[in-house]
Amino acid sequence: MSSEKTTVTKGPKFIESLSRASRSMALSLPIILSLLFLFGWMQVFLPRKVLLYLFRGQAFSDTLIGALLGSIFTGNAANSYIIGGELLQRGVSLFAVAAFMTAWVTVGISQLPAEVAFLGRRFAVARNSISLLLAVMVAVAAVWTWRMF
Q1: Residue 100's closest CA among 131, 129, 63, 133?
Q2: Residue 91 DSSP label
Q3: What is the pLDDT of residues 39-72, one digit of tens each?
Q4: Which of 127, 140, 144, 46 is nearest to 86 (CA)?
Q5: Would you list the domain boundaries of the chain?
Q6: What's the predicted TM-score (pTM) here?
């Protein structure tokens, strides 16, 4: 066996990769800062008492409310993870959080007019309805799986 040392050279590909990573981080910085701002507002305008009033710890109603709220407040998956973690820390049930996160990404009530314009009313309504139903089913399956292990 050879005992030669391998050296990492910082050639043009490394510099290009570093540059791309820096640009990507710079582009995501406003999103991260806006999320921090959003959570600050959540602490003030959505106190734990309101969340616990809305989500009463009943599996069926929590799941439906979570799915409905997630479908209204649409966003990307990365944001749903952060919001879901915050909701869990504030005492919201896993049923509600799982339904919220799934609907947040898959259902788009706020985007429905644009979806209807481009894809047709029948398709848009069917897709959103099926996605909402699946969000509820995914939430139940997620909690069931979590409890099993």
Answers
A1: 63
A2: T
A3: 777 677 777 888 888 899 899 999 999 999 999 9
A4: 46
A5: 47-148
A6: 0.73
